[in-house]
Design a protein that fits this description.
- The chain contains 11 helices and 13 strands.
- It is α/β, with parallel strands linked by helices.
- The strands form 3 sheets. The chain has a 5-stranded mixed beta sheet with strand order 2-1-3-10-4, sandwiched between helices. Strands 7-6-8-5-9 form a 5-stranded mixed beta sheet, with helices on both faces.
- Strand 11 (about 250-255) and strand 12 form a beta hairpin.
- Helix 9 runs parallel beside helix 10.
- The longest helix has 18 residues, at about 15-30.
- It is globular, with a radius of gyration of 19 Å.
- The N and C termini lie far apart (about 45 Å).
């Protein structure tokens, strides 16, 4: 077997480098080859516009995929929630490793929990999905909050709280875990309060479709349960014809009877950014045994959501 280093394409952010470093160690273990990180700057990293304005879909991905296609890197690591739902024919998702905590987390001043924030609290997030659900929860529970659009890396966002510009920010728990900053979390948002983005907490390892040897090696890192769950979530997103900047939340839970996983519950939500209108539905059934089965589950729930007016709530966020 070759001892030539494998080249892993990654974004330059602290979070991307951390999660790519973790994958690099795992890939090195299963292949017996060293792995070299190749830092790539994406449009989403350099643009100062809000993600909803630049479309969201693919802004952190295109440059990495271009490097793969040109043979400049051997494989790439993405946050799965950033991946467009259409898969290029010349690339393959070789592995979806075990998912981390999919929940969103609050980092608030004075160690406050979400429901303890003062009236008029300013909560920062770059996500229309989070805005819609936080505002809907606040409306339904008599809370008075203001959601504020922000950009920037994890350090920048948390600094808004430390500097007193915001009362709290919302971040993905998995990202905070990967960079060792879970101790800053003051509250984890229940799935019943805020559904995560489709694929949140999961990573995608992508390589060229023609490299059968590498696909086989990377496949050892694949977790079938995580893959089937995120496939259903992303199918729902695609069937709603929404990009990853749209206000869509989705989560597929695997339900176990003792040690045996026997059912999957898929939940989806769409809402207007001010939280005044939402469509939230769920479906539960046997765990899909195939990719096509997971895709069908997502499409079916999306069809029910569309029948209840989901498309009208996404407005210009729909792609």
């Amino acid at each position: 077997m070759s001892t030539k280093p494998l080249r892993l394409g990654t974004r330059r952010s602290k979070l991307a480098m951390a999660q790519s470093g973790q994958v690099a160690e795992a890939v090195s273990r299963v292949t017996g080859r060293p792995v070299k990180l190749v830092e790539i700057t994406t449009y989403g990293d350099v643009s100062r516009e809000h993600l909803a304005q630049i479309g969201g879909t693919g802004v952190f991905v295109t440059a990495l995929r271009d490097a793969l296609t040109k043979g400049e890197v051997d494989f790439a690591v993405h946050s799965l929630k950033d991946l467009p739902t259409t898969q290029p024919e010349d690339l393959v998702l070789a592995a979806v490793p075990v998912r981390e905590d999919p929940r969103d987390a609050i980092v608030a001043r004075d160690a406050l929990k979400f429901t303890d924030l003062p009236r008029g609290a300013r909560i920062g997030t770059g996500s229309p999905r989070r805005m819609a659900q936080l505002n809907a929860y606040a409306r339904g529970h008599g809370l008075d909050i203001e959601t504020v659009p922000i950009r920037g890396n994890v350090d920048t966002r948390i600094r808004y709280v430390h500097d007193g510009e915001l009362d709290a920010v919302v971040l993905a728990a998995a990202g905070l875990s990967r960079i060792g900053r879970l101790d800053e979390v003051t509250d984890f948002l229940s799935i019943d309060t805020v559904l995560p983005a489709p694929g949140q907490g999961a990573l995608a390892i992508e390589c060229a479709a023609h490299d059968a040897t590498l696909i086989s090696a990377l496949g050892e890192l694949d977790d079938p349960f995580t893959r089937i769950a995120v496939t259903a979530e992303r199918s729902l997103l695609a069937a709603l014809e929404a990009g990853c900047s749209a206000p869509v939340g989705a989560l597929a839970d695997l339900l176990a009877d003792g040690q045996i996983v026997n059912e999957m519950r898929l939940r989806g939500v769409v809402g207007t950014p001010d939280g005044s209108r939402t469509v939230q539905l769920s479906t539960t059934g046997p765990v899909p045994e195939t990719h096509d089965g997971a895709m069908a589950l997502g499409r079916e729930l999306a069809a029910e959501m569309l029948a209840q007016g989901a498309a009208g709530l996404m407005g210009e966020q729909a792609q």
